[in-house]
Structures are given as C-alpha cells and as structure tokens.
Amino acid sequence: MKKALSKIYVLIILLYLYVPIIVLMLMGFNESRYNSMPFKLSFQWYQALAKDETLITAARNSLILAFITGIICVTLATLFILGQRFLSGRVKSVFDSVSMMPMSIPWLIMGLSLLLLIRALNLDKSMFFVGAGHVVISLPYSLLVLKARMASMDQSLEEMSASLGATPFTTFRRVTLPAIAPAMVAGGFLSFMISFDNFPISYFLTPSGISTLPIEIQSSIKFGFTPEINAVSTVIIGISLLCLAVTGLIMGSSLKSMMGKGDK
Amino acid sequence: MSKVVLENIVKKYGQNTVVKGVSLTAENGQLLSILGPSGCGKTTTLRMIAGFEQSDGGTISFDGKPMDKVPVNKRNIGMVFQSYALFPHMTVEDNIAYGLCQRNLSQSEIKERVEDAMKMVHLEDFAQRKPKALSGGQQQRVALARALVIKPDVLLLDECLSALDKKLRVEMQVELRRILDKTGVTTFFVTHDQEEAMTLSDKIVVMNNGVIEQVGSPYEVYERPKNRFVAGFLGKANFFEGRVTSMNAEEGYVVLEKDGNSVAIPAKDAVLGEDAVFAVRPEKMRISKAPVTGALKGVIEHITYSGNISSCNVECSGRSLVCEVSNDDMSERPQRGETVFVTWESAASVRIEG
Fold first, then answer.
1. B89, A163: Cβ pair inside 8 Å?
2. What does pTM read for this prediction?
3. A263 and B132 in contact by Cβ < 8 A?
4. A261 contacts on B by Cβ (under 8 Å)
5. How far apart are CA A161 and CA A179, in angstroms?
C-alpha cells in the first residue's frame, strides 16, 4: 500500500514536470492552427518550419553562439580551477564565492547592466557583446561542475605522476585532463544550454537585423504564432536529449561516478 | 640504490614547525621505517625526501648529491601512497609503464620491463584490467610494481599497507620484504603501526612532535628504548621511577623512593642517590601464586584473554602493573581477585631517560 502510494505521488510530480512539454510536442503534430482539439495528425508545421528562413537563421545563430559560449566557458573554467588550486584558504574561498555570484544575479539585470556599460563606453551593440554576456552568465555552470570534479579528484594522482618522472605538462595531459574531461564535457554542455535558450541577455544586446532563436520565438508570439513554434521547440528538445545521450555514452561510467555515486 | 642522508631538516607551516631538525641516514639497500603517531611529522619528512614539499632548512642528499633544488620528476624516486593513486583511466599495464614512458626507452625495453614487473608481483594475468576491477591487495601490488619498475634510487612507502585488512596486510608484509630483498632498493617506510615497522625494517626511526626520539634496529628500539615515549609507543611498558635509596648490584635489586613511597624492584643499572626511571616489558614479568623473594605482591584486577597470552592488570600497593603471561599451561590460569607475586629478571629493567 505504502509502495503503491509513493509510486503514485512520484508519478504525479513527474507529470507536473513533463505534461506541458508533452502537450507542446503533440500540438506540433496537430493540424489545427490554434492548438485546438480534435487532434489530427499532420506534419505541415514541420514542412513550414523547413521553409522558414527567418527561424532557421535564428536557430543557426543561436547554435553558433551557444557553441562558442560553451567552448569559452569550459576553457575559462578549466584555467580558473587549475590556477585556483595554488591559492591558499582564505583567498580561495573569496574567489570561490565571487566566481559563483553571476548565478544569483537575475539575467534581466545582468543584461541591462551590460547594455548600460556598452552605452557608457559609447560602443554599438554587437554579437560580440552578446557572446560576452552569455559567457558571463554561463561560466558559473561550467565552473560548478568542474569544481565538484576537481574536489573529488585524488590529488596524489598528480604527485604520483611527477614522482614517476613526468613533467608538469605531461602530468596535466595524461593524468589531470583525463580526470576532468567528463566534467569539461558536462560543464560545456550545461553552459551551451544556458546560452542557447537565454532570452534577456540576447534581447538587450543583439544588434538590429540579427536575432537568436529565443528572440525570434518571442517576437513571433507577439504577432500571433503558428504551431511552427511547437515544431521548432520539439526539434530543440530532441537535439538536447540527443546531446545528453551522446555525452552519457561517450563518458559512460566516469560521468556517472561524477554525478553522484562517486569513485571515491 | 642510494645512500640517503637527511641533515637537520626543518619544515614550517606558518607559525607551526612540524619537523624540527631531523637528521638520519639510510644506508644503501636498507629498509628504514619512520614510526610515530599521527601528526608527528613522519609523512612530511617523507614528502620532503620525495620533493613534494620544500624544506625550510637542512639538506637532503642521495649518494652525496644534494637534492634540495631538484624537482620531484628529476629525483628518480619510487612512491607508493596509502591510496595507491593508481591512474583510474589506465590499465594495469599502462599504469606500470607510465614511469618508463617518461624515460627515453625503446618500446621493446618498456614492454620487457613491464612484463618482468608484473611477474614479480604475480599480476601477469591482470595486465588489461582497470584498477577498479582489482582487489585492494592487487591494487597495492600494481602500485608497488609501478614504483619499482623505474629502478628508483629510493623507494618511499607512505602507510601503504594500512588500507588492507589484517590478514592480507601480514601477507603483503612478507611479500614486500621478499620483493625489496630482491631489488635491494633503499626504502623509507612511513607507518604508525609498530608491529609492521618491527617485522619489516632494518632500522626504525621513532618520531614524535617533529623530532627523532630514537634510531635503531627493531631489537634495539624494543629491548633498549631510550625514553618513556619510545617504550610506550613500541609495545607496552611498566614504568618505575624515583630516587635510588639503596641497591645491590650482585643480587640485582634497586630501591626507588618517590613521594615517600619506596619500592624494591629487580634492576641493576643504577647509581645510588640519583633519580632513575626503569621500563619493564609486560611479557618479561612473571606471575606466581606462591611467594617469591624480592617479588612485588599484588592482586589481579583484570584479565584480558587473547588466545596465546593473557594480559593481567595487577594492583601492587597503589601501582597498576601490566603483565602478560603465556597461556601454555592452562591449569595454572590466573584468576581475577587472586593474590599473586610479580617478579622479573633484573636485566629486564631498562633504565630510560626521564
């Protein structure tokens, strides 16, 4: 009885999480223009999407932006945690909290502040600043994952490598890097996703004439939208799940051990 | 293989001096244990020999060559950590080959030496396994093979047997000694386990609070401890102290007086009128139920039975003595509450520093 009950309420929580997404996905396959019943299977919105140059361009912009952001975030986060190891107690904890702060600042305010900064410096809005802004908000996520990995890594592995005659560079390449690689992939993926669906930062900083997918979706809703939006959302979800699955497959057990059960 | 000399090594962490002027010498091929309680500076000393830590004073030399400015990766040391620190993403074979790959050796030589090393530790059949798929004892042997395959000048073992269960630990002690005898490498072994230090080492260095208390063979440090700390840390000991008020070297007894109480104990090494402290090992004490001349009379307060021996706490006029008796004759088994007489050879009383 207890077991059945707990199954039911866990199911309810899961439904609460996923029902909106499922409805959105289903309506993408519905013929009705207004997301209304009865349901009639149709692929017309996907066909329309394939021809919609604006949406496709926006999606491509978003993908490129998120990809570059992810790469930069992982690089910076890796350099940060490697450098931070040589700091001592107090300085380290100050750096720790400061580096995580962008997470607690609302993106809206972050976007506004960046816009004001650009204005104050008398510069024009550009994709460069959009990218810079995305790095600011996405970096803490890469950092978070990498820090957790570094904290659980056995420091004596690197000492062992040195004692066996390896130079610091060889030690980094053959011992440290393989140990943190899963965290780099996971952290990069997280930063990628944060950047990919970010609206506020992009909204404030994108120059006119260029748009990202979230901005495009937002503006199409303003002018009355078609289930094309459902279709593009479904594609995005599909891509995310695929990325997640691929990451899981490549990193296999090491990712699992990092995510919780731990190898220590 | 090298002769390792430490001269007046000092290590400070901020205000805290953790190693306070340690000097010691390990002869070529010797197995030297650094033994002490946790926090005594033994691991720090080992880490300075390895080069992981810089000393704040003194010199370390291998075969006369000062090592203080030489980085870890140029010291040619073999290291085994308590955690083993096996590279988790590499196979057993790759782990062992790691050190050889850092030295300009041909592929065929690396292969040959790795195979020899795996044979030495009986792991030939596990070459392609990852460390996770090995038992604790096997991991330990991989760590040892990896450290030895590079033919290090010095082998450094940091509590490397502590993580194993007791039975396996004893097996590994024997195995370790066999391998080290075969390779003849100068070895430093850091441990807090006095039994382990005793069975493995040629020489034991007892450390406490950042200083060396005594250096000697296992026999010397056990049978002739220099002070209270060494006597108490290696095995158990009963202490007697006071001013020597009377003595007889021929009959072998000494009378000690302290705070108005005097006690006569079997001992020789004393000077009349001086203060003296004696340590007596529990297993050197004999218990008899019949009165013996010169024996201390007491009552058995507590008995701990541990198979081959029984440990008795005997209350002798305000003094609690620990005596270990062999359980060879079970008809004579001491009982709690019994009145007994405790005696020992005068030579078993070791005069120590106060």
1. no
2. 0.78
3. yes
4. none
5. 13
For chain A, the three-class secondary structure string (H helix, E strand, C coil) is CHHHHHHHHHHHHHHHHHHHHHHHHHHCCECCCCCCCCCCECCHHHHHHHHCHHHHHHHHHHHHHHHHHHHHHHHHHHHHHHHHCCCCHHHHHHHHHHHHHHHCCCHHHHHHHHHHHHHHCCCCCCHHHHHHHHHHHHHHHHHHHHHHHHHHCCCHHHHHHHHCCCCHHHHHHHHHHHHHHHHHHHHHHHHHHHHHCCCHHHHHHCCCCCCCHHHHHHHHHHCCCCCHHHHHHHHHHHHHHHHHHHHHHHHHHHHHHHHHHCCC
Whether A177 and chain B come into contact, CB under 8 Å, resolves to: no
What domains are there in chain B, each with its CATH number? 4-233 (3.40.50.300), 238-352 (2.40.50.140)
Q: What digits encode the pLDDT tens for the residues B199-250?
A: 889 999 999 999 999 999 999 999 999 999 999 888 889 999 888 888 887 7
Within 279-318 of B, beta carbons closer than 8 Å to A belong to: none
The region of weakest confidence among A30-39, A40-49, A90-99, B237-246 is A30-39
Banded model confidence at residue A34, pLDDT cuts 50, 70, 90: low
ipTM of the complex: 0.81
> Which residues does chain B have within 8 Å of residue A174's beta carbon, measured at their own beta carbons?
87, 98
| Contact assignment for B79 to A163 by CB distance below 8 Å | yes
Predicted confidence (pLDDT) per residue in B82-140, tens digit = 888 999 889 999 999 999 988 888 889 899 999 988 888 888 888 889 998 898 888 98
8 Å CB contact of B83 and A156: yes
Nearest chain A CA: its distance from B50 CA (Å): 7
**In Å, how far from its chain's centre is CA A122?**
31
Q: Are A166 and B81 in contact (CB < 8 Å)?
A: no
What is the per-residue pLDDT for A259?
46
Reported in sequence order, the residue ranges of B46-168 that DSSP labels E, i.e. its strands, are 57-62, 65-66, 77-80, 154-158
Neighbours of A90 (CB within 10 A): 8
Render pLDDT for A62-74 as a digit per residue (tens, 0 to 9): 889 999 999 999 9
Contacts of B76 in chain A (CB under 8 A): 165
